[in-house]
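Section 5: illustrative case.
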């Protein structure tokens, strides 16, 4: 079955690498002495490692903007736009963006930088580490249309990290109603935190209920489990595994990228 993934990516079951930006202006961890140039330098080095290692796409996010906001301050997306603009001449694969945890700001950033997709929490109400977390997909969808972003694909994370859905509903029910009522372009299934394994059973439940909508495994993909995860999912988003020693805070390692990408390419030969 052909999906938009076939139009965007050069290979089936694409591997999208996370490019985690350092803490930005306004974030508690921002290094004001080093400034934006240090963020750009690190991002360029990690982008080179990811692309040299053979990933199919990259997704640029403010992963180190801890603790996260569910409605970000304008300086966050503005700073990300500055960094991404400096990266653009060196990006050679399809790319998306994610302003954590703000769907509307993510779409705005995509329009400003030419990104082809965004990933965010667009539906549901959650009890989270960041407080009570509400969404409004109807408003976001209309905003997307108003600013001419209909071509920007929306990846919905329906099992968000560090949060629990407040309604007593099954994962299959949530997936089916999300697909029917909110029109996602893709669905992401996550573990508890960045790098945490995604439960294979949960992944299969979502895939079975999602119909023709592509499903991504969003956390915890490693070289040894990539084949099992991609036997179910239509693609994978990978961040922590690509870091040196598999440590979230570290920089991307080209050797670890090549290891996982090699396992995925071996799996593709069986398709």
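Designed sequence:
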């Amino acid at each position: 079955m052909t999906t938009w993934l076939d139009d965007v990516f050069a290979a089936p079951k694409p591997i999208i690498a996370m490019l985690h930006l350092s803490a930005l202006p306004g974030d508690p961890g921002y290094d004001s002495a080093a400034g934006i140039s240090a963020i750009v330098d690190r991002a360029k080095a990690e982008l080179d490692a990811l692309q040299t290692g053979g990933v199919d796409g990259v997704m640029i996010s403010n992963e180190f903007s801890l603790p996260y906001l569910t409605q970000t301050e304008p300086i966050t997306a503005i700073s990300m736009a500055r960094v991404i603009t400096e990266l653009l001449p060196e990006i050679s694969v399809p790319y998306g963006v994610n302003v954590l945890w703000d769907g509307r700001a993510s779409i705005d950033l995509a329009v400003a930088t030419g990104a082809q997709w965004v990933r965010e929490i667009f539906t549901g109400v959650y009890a989270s580490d960041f407080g009570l977390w509400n969404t409004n997909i109807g408003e976001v969808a209309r905003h997307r249309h108003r600013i001419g972003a209909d071509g920007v694909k929306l990846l919905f994370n329906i099992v968000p990290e560090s949060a629990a859905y407040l309604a007593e509903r099954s994962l299959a029910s949530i997936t089916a109603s999300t697909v029917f009522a909110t029109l996602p372009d893709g669905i992401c299934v996550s573990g508890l935190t960045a790098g945490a394994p995604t439960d294979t059973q949960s992944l299969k439940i979502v895939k079975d209920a999602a119909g023709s909508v592509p499903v991504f495994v969003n956390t915890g993909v490693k070289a040894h489990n990539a084949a099992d995860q991609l036997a179910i999912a239509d693609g994978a988003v990978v961040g922590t595994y690509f870091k040196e020693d598999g440590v979230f805070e570290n920089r991307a390692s080209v050797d670890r990228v090549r290891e996982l990408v090699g396992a995925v390419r071996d799996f593709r030969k069986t398709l």
